[in-house]
Write a structure and sequence with these properties.
six-stranded mixed beta sheet, 9 helices, four-stranded antiparallel beta sheet, 23% strand, Rossmann fold, alpha/beta, 266 residues
Length: 266
């Protein structure tokens, strides 16, 4: 008897999945701007092998890496090197829905560009941060936050697609919310990611980005429900700009991102 190994969808445990593509360590390495040979060994440690598959659930369209394992602190420190965007269009959308009296937690602050805006909008003593690579943040990991601490606003821009343990992550968030808490999330639009993968042979690939999210799948996250959803339209200029930076990264590494924003209420 020949048995076929099934791959379960991480959000709903469906086995109705298909493979979108398969990628190897050398290919991932060639698509990284700040290349360092140590990255190859770190990626292999994460995957436990030379390749990773990217799957899609046929039932609800969620896409994910298999093995479903996110990047490590060591890998991120080598890739990003403080290469964070100074401005995002979703920052102002979030700020417009935050009041001075809110108690805010930004998750994944990078080097703090949005955090500075948040401190100007709210009381400084009511603004907290989580950043795994920054010991200047209030917390380095979500599990460091005591359950009795409560927040009315959570902001996470470009974070969700990095998380493999997202169920544990959102269970923690629900423990530290006030009654009418708001969560602001931005993620790369899945159509954008797939467009650049096809045109350039790469996109936001694992083990850095391990999932693709959309309105339907985000609505499956615990007790959170979307109350507002906006998508940035990609101009022809930005498409050409992204294609240019993509080709330059491949051919000339070391010489060098369009998001959708979602607001949820608990």
């Amino acid at each position: 008897m020949k048995l076929k190994k099934t791959i379960k969808y991480p959000l709903c445990n469906s086995i109705n999945t298909k493979m979108i593509y398969e990628i190897g360590i050398e290919e991932v390495f060639s698509r990284i701007n700040n290349r360092n040979n140590e990255m190859k060994g770190e990626i292999k440690n994460i995957w436990g092998k030379e390749t990773c598959k990217f799957m899609s659930c046929e039932d609800c369209t969620f896409s994910f890496a298999h093995p479903f394992k996110g990047g490590t602190d060591k890998l991120y420190s080598m890739i990003y090197q403080n290469n964070y965007p100074t401005e995002r269009w979703e920052y102002q959308l979030a700020l417009d829905n935050i009041s001075k009296e809110d108690i805010c937690l930004e998750i994944g602050v990078g080097i703090g560009f949005f955090l500075k805006k948040l401190i100007k909008k709210c009381r400084k003593e009511n603004v907290y941060s989580v950043e795994i690579s920054n010991n200047k943040s209030d917390y380095q990991k979500m599990e460091d936050i005591p359950d009795e601490k409560k927040f009315s606003v959570f902001c996470m821009f470009g974070v969700l697609e990095h998380l493999a343990e997202f169920k544990i992550f959102f269970n923690k968030i629900e423990k530290i919310t006030t009654k009418d808490a708001k969560l602001f999330i931005s993620v790369p639009h899945e159509k954008r990611v797939e467009f650049f993968r096809k045109k350039l042979g790469f996109g936001d690939c694992p083990p850095v980005h391990v999932s693709r999210w959309n309105k339907k799948t985000i609505n499956m996250l615990g007790n959170w429900k979307i109350v507002e959803h906006k998508v940035q339209i990609i101009s022809s200029f930005k498409i050409l700009k992204n294609l240019f930076y993509g080709y330059r990264t491949i051919n000339y590494p070391g010489t060098h991102k369009i998001n959708s924003t979602i607001k949820l209420c608990f």
